[in-house]
């Protein structure tokens, strides 16, 4: 497969031609489908829910990387497993008992991810890193596609990458928000393993070629 993995965010897909866009990702060099689930509480936006996820699962030939931007995500872990999520990421800021939540995700048969908002320091993960398969660094404030990348994210990624190495883990580092063909190589150099890209992929003239560029750097 080879790093970086590329996970196009379907939030920027054309929902009127969803199957076409899913096929494009299937045919491309992308590794995962990134699905953004928003509840209108944790973030000031609502995206899509189970009927759409099940439809995506029926056509997708690559793993579903599901990013939950919802409060109290424990309520829906089983439902997302049943809907076909392969990786389930919750927000640090939305979990009172994060250790239990990550364990429940793994027990439900999925990889467990934890995401940090731009204001949340990476050192807060020091005593939970071993329980996560992936950390998602938000490089914009969550809620919308097409926002500008926050430059301070590089510093967070470097610090997180050092923490992963210090602890002898192989936790994946994913970056989400404002990723472009231009900043992707610098993000990979800072320690990113998984690039999420919405607007960059779906608003480009040739999405498959853009995915290839993200992948090859
Ligand atoms: C934002 C979402 C992102 C979003 C990224 O809250 O988590 O996955 O789709 O979109 P771009 O790549 O356009 O910033
Ligand atoms: Zn996302």
Task: Describe this protein's structure.
This protein has helices at 18-27, 50-59, 77-83, 98-107, 153-166, 184-190, 199-202, 207-216; strands at residues 5-8, 33-38, 64-69, 87-91, 111-116, 134-138, 172-176, 194-197. It is an alpha/beta fold and 217 residues long. The protein has one domain (5-216): Aldolase class I (TIM Barrel), CATH 3.20.20. An 8-stranded parallel sheet has the order 1-8-7-6-5-4-3-2. The longest helix is centred in the last third of the chain and has 14 residues, at 153-166. The radius of gyration is 16 Å and the shape is globular. The mean pLDDT is 98. The structure holds D-xylitol-5-phosphate and zinc ion. Zinc ion binds at residues 9, 34, 36, 67, 176, 196. Residues 9, 11-12, 34, 36, 67, 140, 142-143, 145-147, 176-179, 196-200 line the site of D-xylitol-5-phosphate.
Short description:
The chain is of the alpha/beta class and 217 residues long.
Set down the secondary structure blueprint.
Layout (H helix, E strand, L loop, with lengths): L4 E4 L9 H10 L5 E6 L11 H10 L4 E6 L7 H7 L3 E5 L6 H10 L3 E6 L17 E5 L14 H14 L5 E5 L7 H7 L3 E4 L1 H4 L4 H10 L1
This protein binds D-xylitol-5-phosphate and zinc ion.
